[in-house]
Specification:
This protein is an alpha/beta fold. It has two domains: 238 residues, no CATH class; 141 residues, D-Maltodextrin-Binding Protein, domain 2 (3-Layer(aba) Sandwich). 65% of the residues lie in helices and 6% in strands. It contains 14 helices and six strands. The strands form two sheets. A four-stranded mixed beta sheet has the order 2-1-3-4, sandwiched between helices. The longest helix has 36 residues. The two termini are 18 Å apart.
Amino acid sequence: MALKDIKILLRDRGSLVMSFVVPVAFILALSLPTLAASSGSDAILIPLVNRAQGDPLADEFIAALGDTGGLDVQVIEAERANALLREGDIRWLVELPEDFGRMGLDHQVTVRLIAHPDARPTTLESIERVLTGVAKGMAVNHQLLAAFEQLDVMMDAAPAEYRVFTSETYIAQARSQMENSRSRPLVSVSETQALRAGRELEFGATNLTVPGFAVLFVFLTAQSTALSIVQEKRAGTFRRILASPLSRSSLLLGKLIPNFILCLLQVVFVFAVAILVLPLLGLDRLSLGYDPFALLLTTVLVALCSTGLGLFIAGIAQTPTQAGALSSVVLWVLGALGGAFYPTFLMSGPLQTISSLTPHAWALRAYNTLLVYGGGLADVLPELAILAGIGVAFAAIGTWRFSFE
């Protein structure tokens, strides 16, 4: 039975494309923005219009903005900048006002961030935070120097014996400290990657996206199992097989084995492409973690759960149309809720709760623990136990509802 279905599957080119080519196509399609970004500069281009040309404070602000990591500041003329913004050639524009140099306690100035409707909100938020940080730093420095100047006016009214320092001394010392703070900040931020058992974890975005799509299409394979069973029942070949000296359990097992093998091959193929092909395109290489046995066991349980889901669909659906429609809608929705497209740890509270009801979520939690956090078998045992329980439940309900007639 299993060999017969495997031969049929190998002749079904559409099913093979869906099982092996489409997952890779999804991964490459979602990786195109990363490829485009990696082909150019990593810095965010900041077009800037300086309406306070020649003002020392404006030049200081532009220099401080340029010293910020990850930004490429380019000063351009106002007319050209507005034309580029209207045409959509640039997505945002920073504008310094003419009165920028008059900033003070009695005069507030406004730096404008002009955004194109198609600008990415996350990038705009990052730029706004940088602008706010640089502006606040300049404002504090400017107010500090202004305070020293006011202190000098107050010292002029004091007796001569109390005039130990002049305003020039205060301001020179303050400027020196400000310059030192830029090159030697009091607080620095250091970025390091997680370590596990003394080993550095090689992590990239691929470790999140590849398992997500692998799990999505492994569970979509359950549709093929369900359709194969329902179509054989509709064609009457099931009755002929039942007339042979073959038990019903052996019959079902023979129908499910090809699905299980296909699921394993899907994961192996997708992971192999992520290891061997994606680095050639400039993308991150998939890291397989530090526990091969835990990774193999996770993959086997995911394949078994998909196989049980296929039996569950076959037990509920009465016609190939029902099996196709039910599996397509349910499996794509479950994949989305389970984190195949968007990691569950970035979802809001209610969505995280709902995602916990899907087998995809538990499979991806296990893969993330192994491939992203460098965990081992002991770390994923709860996820694997729940995944195995879901698979057993699918198979039990599918067998109970299954009709051999």
